[in-house]
């Protein structure tokens, strides 16, 4: 990471674009130039942005299914232990493995652990909780929740050079280009 003269750490370069089409075009240009540590920001999801940025599929689905399977097999094991091994009761002459009676508990534990996997997996994959982000220090970035479209290339990118990045973003149609520093 780069250091500035006033001892703040350079986070990256931020550029604003006027509409979603320009933002997708800019993301494509940044991606084709080999940058990997960059992100786009807009007030709403933009169809095709993941393709323009060459993003991989999310791992969240695998986290959810694995937690769901743990819930399912955990419920089966718990009920089997309770009803067959630990405290077997013969109720109305039914077998000890009365599987239809196990369905509600099995379903609920599967859904419960899947939901926990989704929520906490999302937190983990997004690097949350993060109480402050360097982009929040930019006055221009406040427009992102209303009508702003932004690209930020982070200084952690191996080929990051602030001047080259600013020139590339300017040629891509970016305005209000600024360096962002950690506070």
Helix and strand topology:
Blueprint: E1 10-17, H1 20-32, E2 38-41, H2 49-52, H3 60-86, H4 99-125, E3 149-154, H5 162-171, E4 175-181
Antiparallel strand pairs: 1-3, 1-4, 2-3
Helix pairs in contact: 3-4
Describe the structure.
It contains five helices and four strands. α3 runs antiparallel to α4. With 183 residues, the chain is α+β, with helices and mostly antiparallel strands. The protein folds into two domains: 10-57 and 134-181, Alpha-Beta Plaits; 60-125, no CATH class. It is elongated and about 80 Å long. A four-stranded antiparallel sheet has the order 2-3-1-4, covered by helices on one side.
How are strands sequenced across the largest beta sheet?
Answer: 2-3-1-4
Strand content: 5-15%
Q: In angstroms, what separates the terminal alpha carbons?
A: 14 Å
Report the CATH C-level class of the largest domain: Alpha Beta
**Count of helical regions:** 5
Instruction: Decide which structural class fits the backbone.
Output: alpha+beta
Rg measurement, Å: 25 Å
Mean pLDDT: 93
Poorly predicted spans: none
Largest sheet: 4 strands, antiparallel
Morphology call: elongated
CATH topology of the largest domain: Alpha-Beta Plaits
Task: Tell me roughly what share of residues is in helical segments.
Answer: 40-55%
H/E element sequence: EHEHHHEHE
Q: Report the count of strand segments.
A: 4
CATH architectural grouping of the largest domain: 2-Layer Sandwich
Number of domains: 2
């Amino acid at each position: 990471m780069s250091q500035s003269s006033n001892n703040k750490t350079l986070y990256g370069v931020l550029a604003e674009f006027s509409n979603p089409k320009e933002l997708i075009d800019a993301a494509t240009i940044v991606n084709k130039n080999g940058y990997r540590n960059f992100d786009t920001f807009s007030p709403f999801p933009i169809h095709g942005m993941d393709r323009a940025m060459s993003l991989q599929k999310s791992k969240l689905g695998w986290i959810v299914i694995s937690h769901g399977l743990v819930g399912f097999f955990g419920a089966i094991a718990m009920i089997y232990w309770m009803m067959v091994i630990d405290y077997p009761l013969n109720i109305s002459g039914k077998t000890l493995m009365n599987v239809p009676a196990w369905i509600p508990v099995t379903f609920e534990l599967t859904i419960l652990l899947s939901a926990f996997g989704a929520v906490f997996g999302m937190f983990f994959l997004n690097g949350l909780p993060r109480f402050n982000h360097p982009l929040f220090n930019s006055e221009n970035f406040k427009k992102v929740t209303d009508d702003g479209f932004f690209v930020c290339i982070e200084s952690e990118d191996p080929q990051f050079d602030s001047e080259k990045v600013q020139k590339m973003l300017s040629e891509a149609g970016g305005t209000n280009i600024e360096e962002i520093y950690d506070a």
